[in-house]
Amino acid sequence: MRILITGAGQGLGYAAVREGLLRGHDVIAGSRNPERDEERLRELHSGTGKLTIVPLDVTKENSIFQAKETIESEMDYIDVILNNAGILIARNETIESLDFGDMEQTMETNVYGPMKMIKHFLPLLRRSENACIINVSSESGCFTSAYGGDYPYAISKNALTFFSAQLKNALKPEGFSVISIHPGWIRTPMGGDQAPGDPEDTARGILDMIEGKVKLPDDAWMVDHKGQPMPF
Question: Which residue range is the domain that position 154 belongs to?
Fold first, then answer.
């Protein structure tokens, strides 16, 4: 399968690139800073899959468009988009102290980025026989986890999961699989060194979903990395 991964230079995106290549898939690694990330990504190319690295900044629509043009010039379809790129800022701010510049930056990356990705790459996905969209969300976006903190991140992830539900309904007649996933608290630059989870485990779970090895409940609005439904 041909799998496009955003935020591929580190964290979960990097682990997903590795897992995809090990399983023999053709992986397109989208990186905001390919000069920084290319050497590390090339070191992953130990599997039988093909690795393609493209400059891709999800906060800039022209960057997404240029990435689509580059990819389309080399291949006539893609099977999967893994919308992984995201940011976590202004963690300790109360609503009284919240800088809405941080709010806007978070929404631009965590919500508008995935929306723009689908806007531009949907024609390539439609040429696949097994089109799949996976949006990396978070349990912090669940109503049951509305603990009154992490305002930019939590609100953005709630919005991303709602967008996933919209896509699921809109694209279901065309045979698309659309999944919103809670990756768990994992050891990444975002999650920190104290996180209990391993990004490699989450990457394996995501690839199992992509390959159809995990049966996902039709009525789940979000699942964890093992395919189990998350609370609303």
Answer: 2-224
CA–CA dist 13, 19 (Å, integer)? 10
- The Cβ of residue 32 has, within 10 Å, a number of other Cβ atoms equal to 19
pTM over 0.85: yes
Rounded to 5 degrees, what are φ and ψ at 80?
-140, 140
| Dihedral angle over CA of 35, 39, 44, 47, nearest 10 | 90
As for how many domains the chain has, the answer is 1
Is position 231 within any domain? no
Asked if residue 201 is part of any domain, the answer here is yes
CATH number at residue 36: 3.40.50.720
Q: Are 81 and 136 in contact (CB under 8 A)?
A: no
Residue 15 inside a domain? The answer is yes
Q: Is residue 100 part of a domain?
A: yes
**Per residue in 137-196, pLDDT tens?**
999 999 998 988 899 999 999 999 999 999 999 999 999 999 999 999 899 988 888 888
* Residue tagged 């199992």 (tokens): 208
Q: How far apart are CA 81 and CA 102, in angstroms?
A: 26
